[in-house]
């Protein structure tokens, strides 16, 4: 699943400045493409479109509907994204690429099967003009397709095409929003925005079809896999909700504003977290073209030795090299993100002034930046534990994040409004520390997992006889934060 990371690393290994910078930027796009570019695009829209809307209320409604659509679709698609990523990763580990088209289209079909009714129920229950409701509904559908499509982006090798898709689509969203707001108010702005997102989906889907030839059919094997992997369905949902729960609570906390129906906003908290989470982009980029690719080379080498029936001391030595890389990589990333966060916290007021943001959001921005540092580490721990096939540990960690983030956020609201962001920061910190403990145990249990634990795709082996393996090789995992 880290194929594009290897391609980007080759680009950066040319050792000229332009290649290194290009590799880093493209890595950031791949790691958090729709989130980063659409967030930046929304930032541009926020400060450019005020003059294009006839009323301030229309602008607030547009921004609220886009934020609601992002949160709602991410949580909905989380029900299928992790099982789909795991299924595709298993096929990649077995070097089977012929069914990728069918898997992709089947995942889209399943997503729309439950996504369309839920999106319709949520949107059409709002007291809004029909044109606005229809545009919001279409935006949610396009975003669902975008999250499903980006789950396969890391498998692609043409980083230029991926970067162009995100850049062109985000640019189209910005100009589409501005023109739509001028000539069609809220509904026009929403349609302009979703057209850009739709362009990203179209270009990425075309690239998937180009790089992965094969027949197009309804992949029943994936549907069976999905039925057998309800634990992954729940896990993906809990992980995503754990990241969003503090924002959702603050939308309905004192100081929030009702926009329409159940859609609320908390202007101060949203602005602070909006800017804070942008500070983790450098680390996400580093993860794509340095950490995951370097780790996977050492990870795969262990299984090459196992399948080659090499002496046990050679296998242990390969494992130690993998462990040393994890520790060195985590320390390296912690230093880089720590330095970025430190500078951001010290210069937070200047940054908010530069973007003409409300300075009342400064405490949230600082708390969110520190929490973002912990969330990045937590995301890597999630990923590595999934590599090591430690799903039970990931489940415990995900539930800890959800319950602590929700509980501490609610508690901080009850104690004092000055503690905005404290719940999120504390929850991420506690979860990251516990995640490191679980990761350490997962490394210790590595041999037991490989030799003694039964393969977790046994339930569909009768359908896929060629998928049987002598070794319980934990499949590659997708990145859960994205």
Task: Give an account of the 3D structure.
It is a single chain. By secondary structure, this protein is mainly alpha-helical. The protein has 2 domains: 3-228, no CATH class; 273-467, no CATH class. The protein is 76% helix and 1% strand. It has 16 helices and 2 strands. A two-stranded antiparallel ribbon has the order 1-2. The chain is globular. It starts with a helix and ends in a 31-residue tail after the last helix.
Summarize the structure.
The protein has 482 residues and is an all-alpha fold. It contains 16 helices and 2 strands.
List keywords for this structure.
mainly alpha, 76% helix, 482 residues, 2 strands
Shape: globular
Profile the largest sheet: 2 strands, antiparallel
Radius of gyration, CA atoms, in whole angstroms: 22 Å
Q: Can you count the helices? A: 16
Question: In angstroms, what separates the terminal alpha carbons?
Answer: 14 Å
Neighbour order of strands in the largest sheet: 1-2
Helix content: over 70%
Q: Which regions have little confidence, pLDDT < 50, spanning 5+ residues?
A: 457-482
**How many distinct domains?**
2
Strand content: under 5%
String of helices and strands: HHHHHHHHEEHHHHHHHH
Structural class, by secondary structure, is: mainly alpha
Multimeric status of the protein: single chain
Name the average pLDDT.
80
The overall strand count is 2
């Amino acid at each position: 699943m880290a194929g594009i990371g290897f391609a980007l690393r080759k680009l950066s290994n040319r050792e000229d400045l332009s290649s290194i910078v290009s590799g880093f930027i493209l890595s950031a796009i791949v790691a958090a493409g729709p989130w980063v570019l659409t967030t930046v695009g929304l930032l541009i829209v926020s400060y450019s479109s005020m003059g294009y809307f006839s009323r301030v209320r229309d602008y607030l409604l547009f921004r609220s509907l886009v934020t609601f659509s992002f949160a709602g679709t991410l949580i909905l698609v989380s029900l299928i994204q992790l099982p789909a990523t795991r299924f595709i990763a298993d096929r990649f580990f077995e070097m089977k690429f012929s069914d990728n088209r069918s898997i992709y289209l089947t995942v889209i079909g399943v997503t729309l099967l439950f996504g369309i009714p839920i999106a319709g129920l949520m949107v059409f229950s709002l007291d809004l003009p029909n044109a606005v409701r229809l545009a919001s509904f279409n935006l949610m559908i396009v975003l669902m397709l975008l999250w499903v499509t980006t789950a396969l982006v890391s498998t692609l090798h043409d980083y230029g095409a991926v970067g162009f898709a995100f850049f062109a689509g985000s640019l189209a969203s910005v100009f589409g929003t501005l023109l739509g707001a001028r000539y069609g108010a809220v509904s026009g702005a929403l349609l302009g925005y979703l057209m850009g997102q739709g362009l990203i989906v179209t270009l990425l889907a075309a690239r998937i079809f180009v790089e992965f030839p094969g027949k197009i059919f309804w992949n029943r094997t994936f549907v069976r896999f999905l039925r057998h992997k309800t634990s992954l369905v729940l896990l993906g949902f809990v992980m995503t909700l754990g990241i969003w729960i503090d924002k959702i609570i603050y939308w309905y906390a004192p100081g929030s504003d009702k926009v329409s129906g159940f859609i609320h906003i908390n202007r101060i908290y949203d602005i602070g977290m909006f800017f804070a989470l942008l500070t983790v982009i450098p680390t996400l980029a580093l993860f794509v073209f340095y950490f995951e690719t370097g780790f996977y080379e050492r990870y795969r080498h262990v299984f090459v030795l196992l399948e080659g029936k090499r002496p046990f001391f050679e296998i242990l030595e390969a494992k130690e090299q993998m462990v040393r890389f994890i520790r060195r990589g985590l320390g390296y990333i912690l230093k880089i993100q720590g330095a970025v966060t430190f500078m951001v916290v010290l210069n937070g007021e200047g940054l908010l002034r530069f973007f003409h943001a409300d300075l009342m959001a400064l405490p949230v921005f600082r708390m969110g930046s520190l929490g973002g540092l912990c969330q990045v580490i937590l995301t890597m721990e999630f990923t590595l534990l999934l590599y090591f096939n430690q799903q039970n540990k990931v489940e415990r960690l995900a539930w800890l994040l959800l319950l602590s983030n929700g509980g501490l956020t609610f508690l901080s609201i009850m104690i004092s409004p000055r503690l905005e962001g404290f719940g999120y920061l504390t929850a991420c910190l506690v979860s990251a520390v516990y995640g490191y403990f679980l990761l350490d145990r997962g490394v210790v249990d590595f041999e037991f997992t490989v030799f003694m634990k039964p393969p977790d795709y046994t339930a569909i082996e009768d359908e896929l006889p060629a998928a049987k393996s002598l070794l319980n090789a934990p499949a590659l995992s997708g990145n859960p934060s994205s």
